């Protein structure tokens, strides 16, 4: 079990100071700046800060081994915090600020609606100003359209998109013969709407005997009391709830259902951290299912080493939320920069296309490939279920809760690979 002690309670210092530290340690060349545009305050600030820690750690590890190797000498990475406050207009304002500063690499993911707006703005700017083009690197915005009908040469997605995640989740649901009634609930924006719609379609195809006993969309980030929604779930007689909710919209939903004494199984995209295990405690054992590209108990000794190293860097259990895909994003960006021998956006984009990743030698136990045709990263997925950690249980818990996740099933790339529907417009060489 992952132990909680006084050392883990120590708070991490300010983000800007942490961002500067690895750059000051390297004097080989001007830093390659990465602008993380994310909601660091507001309703989903905790999710934004979790992203920040992941990306910061990835940047620090690259810099510790010398940075990106370029013909003019090694150059460190520098990660900049740009708070969108969870608002699309503010995100666009921050993008303009990054553009004005000549930052070529923009990172975002918490909200597909924000991602769509940023991609559109970058597309227009890159056409208007070809000498100062930018790349958009997406770690979590999973609406499929972003690599399908709205695909862009300037956008690369490192997370599995929603249909790939749903394919894995609903396949596990398909095999549960006892499951007869499911409630669908999501945030009322493009991603949440897509998850509810596609979940219904996939379950109808795979298990037509399952009854959808409720379908609900709620305002995103504005509901403080989910009791009315929990009451509807109780009245429906649902045995399971499927949701793409994330951040506090998921934690508060789970809490409201628990407070009513209900015990449905939650099939989630993001139920493996950000307070959900601690909120449910024993009631979540065997009842919370999550899908992700990796989880702390998924792998071998290399996987365990990555978890332990991250926890040494961020010893506060409240900051214990590690994503393999964010490590992959930074590592693949560096590989593409070195392959292109340039930091120019189009050259790096072409180097990223078709790039294969095997991070075992880098302390990232993950593999995958960036599909050139649509810029969707193809990788295995794990469906896992909440269980006890400690003696006789899982090796790692999450967030000091005493509970972690164990693998139910690993899905290989060929089980999830999405059909191609992207018609990408490419810039002239």
From TrEMBL:
UniProt cross-references to InterPro entries, sorted A to Z: BCAA_transport, Leu-bd, Peripla_BP_I
Magnesium as UniProt keyword: no
Keyword Glycoprotein in annotation: no
Domain of life: Bacteria
CDD domains (UniProt xref): PBP1_SBP-like
Pfam families according to UniProt: Peripla_BP_6 (PF13458)
Domain called Leucine-binding protein: residue spans: 31-389
Alphabetized UniProt keyword annotations: Signal
Matching PANTHER family: ABC TRANSPORTER SUBSTRATE-BINDING PROTEIN, LEUCINE-SPECIFIC-BINDING PROTEIN
Entry's family note: Belongs to the leucine-binding protein family.
Designated name of the protein: Branched-chain amino acid ABC transporter substrate-binding protein
Organism ancestry: Bacteria, Pseudomonadati, Pseudomonadota, Betaproteobacteria, Burkholderiales
